[in-house]
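Response to reviewer comment R2.3. The reviewers asked that we include at least one raw input/output pair. We reproduce the pair for DUF2264 domain-containing protein here without editing.
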Amino acid sequence: MDVFANRTPFSPNTLQTRDDLAKFLQEILDPLAGHTSPGDARIRLGHTGTHYDDIAAQLEGFSRPIWGLASLLAGGGEYEGTKRWVDGFTNGSDPKSEEFWGNMRDKDQRMVECSAIGFAIAVAREKLWDPLSPEAKVNLETWLGGMNDKEMPNTNWLWFRVFANLGLSRAGSPRFDAERMKADLDHLDTFYIGGGWSRDGPEGVIQLDYYSSSFAIQFSQLAYSKLAQNDDPQRCEEYRNRARAFALDFVHYFDPEGRAIPFGRSMTYRFAMSSFWGALAFADVELPAPLSWGVVKGLQLRNIRYWATQAGAYAADGTLTIGYCYPNHNMTENYNSPGSPYWCCKSFVALAVPATHPFWAAKEAPYPHELLETTKALSHPLHIMSNLGGHTFLLSSGQQCSYPVKQSAAKYGKLAYSSAFGYSVPAGNGTLEELGGDSTLALSDDGGETWKCRRATRDARLEGGGRYLRAMWYPWNDVEVETWLVPPQRETPLWHVRVHRIRTARALSSAEGGFAIYGQGADGRALEPAAGEALGTHERGGEARAASKAGVSGIVDIGSGERKGRALRTDANTNLMVPRAVLPTLMHEHVASDRSMWLVTAVFALPTSGDRQAAKPGWTAQWNERPWVPREIAALMLRSFTGRG
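Raw output as returned:
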């Protein structure tokens, strides 16, 4: 027995009420005192580096918790450590102070941190702005206003300047620039593509991840619609309508246990993934059925409850670690400082509304019954969502980063992403174990020395009336891969199907992975081969699987059957959710050919739920019930084999 399992540094908290949430926030804020500078303007939580300077990183540690603190104060709450942030405003914005944050330059990380400060002034002016001396107010407004004439990235960053100006406006500051704010908002609106969705950038950017929702754009639109409703009513109503449409898609990214599907970058922000639901309450946006206030409350609180019990998300003193379910620097971006994870404090925004608000007054409701055991195609992000068989995951094609991001192929290019199993990132590129190649087709042209996975796609689209995804990708100039992704069917709800057509002028090795799964047995040691439904691994011909307390993950070659199944033990710390994982994989060697080669793959996934320590008995019957290829795709394969296509 692991006596340390799920032992967090926080006091027991059911996180069911507004007071419970406020208590959890206070326990998130308290440990920061021991890492705060003498003048309270900087919080240093570690010594790892980022692409920006260390002073900006310490400002990040100071500013990001303010999302939660300001919400608490705005809702009438109190926090005995509030003075630390008031004093920090004074010393951080004073050019004569040793703790001065530094004036902003073009595209400066300091701009990001202005958003929380502007929000704080806008919603909790009496507690965070009014106590400042006249000189401190001039310094802080001068510092905030210093971004109005600077160049910013053409992304969600523009929202940070909007919030700086909102704060300046609420403070009655002469540094408020109404023209600048309107121009930023007008430009941000050009990112909108319909159905509630916005790109994280101009036309040509193909990222619709959590920055399009809880991390930035939707959250910001909702907060703005509340704070500017008297000054900009038409735009605010448009933002509320976008949220109503978006919510009907976004709900599919959450599972009944409260977990969101990890996808894209900045996963170390953790429960910021659910802040959209709290922002609906802040903006008083009631949603269409089946998303009642009770449902919205449940989506928000279940997600926070999940994270409150993830021991690896916190250091022994209660500060947040860099990582996801445990400390993990493999998965980070070059902008993740030790203070970055506190972006999660956006999820405390529901504390800004009173206990009488319908969000808090409603009885918490479970995940909508109408949305269980369903699949849904989302045309804008090019995702097919599924929770058939009790597994919440998505199939993905057509997203990629438009700028360099570490491990972007893993964060955007995988074939599937799961709320239960997460995704993996490479720890290196010299072996398959290092690659962390779950939910991807990895190819090598040097005998397995190095591997390439799908990163950028072309011609990605939904086909078959939204029943499957189709996309092209080109790992080398003379290698073409076309992939079809087919979600589970009601007859075989634990399987999804992948079909790959490969044309190659060079010999290749291939390795296709299913979902990476917790790789330890009941004794905590590595899984060993086992038969039947016992915990362990299984390899036979063209199939492989692994069963552990996390459930069952498997993969089968349902095409030629030539590939070999292997239960691959991946390098430690590649998977976001578990540090030790097993990856069911199919492997093969392919010769160069002027004819199409077809790989047809069935992927099996059955996560456990609640406190279960294994999948429900009888799952092998579903394992033995194999899925099929849709007729349209099978017809393409047949024409290829007969030389007619």
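The chain has 18 helices and 19 strands. Residues 376-641 form a domain with the Beta-galactosidase; Chain A, domain 5 fold (CATH 2.70.98). Further pairs are available on request from the corresponding author.
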